[in-house]
Specification:
about 15% strand, alpha+beta, 3 helices, about 70 residues, Arc Repressor Mutant, subunit A
């Protein structure tokens, strides 16, 4: 459970600085940033992205579904 909070924080921090990104870019950046703490499964990162979308931190771009936009 603690890893979910860490992943959420890293994803939000990345998106806050980039404003928009693709899921694959986010996965790569998350793994790069926290690989010293633990090696997250890409499926877990995708689940956390979906959770952040449901909680209105992120949204999918209406013109390009591969892009995610930062909302909060």
């Amino acid at each position: 459970m603690k890893s979910a909070f860490i992943l959420d924080a890293v994803i939000v921090r990345i998106m806050k600085s980039k404003k928009q990104s693709t899921t694959q870019e986010i996965i790569t950046l998350v793994i790069d940033q926290i690989s010293s703490q633990f090696l997250p499964d890409p499926k877990m990162i995708k689940k956390r992205i979906e959770s952040l979308i449901e909680r209105d931190y992120l949204q999918r771009d209406s013109n390009d579904i591969t892009k995610l936009l930062y909302l909060a």
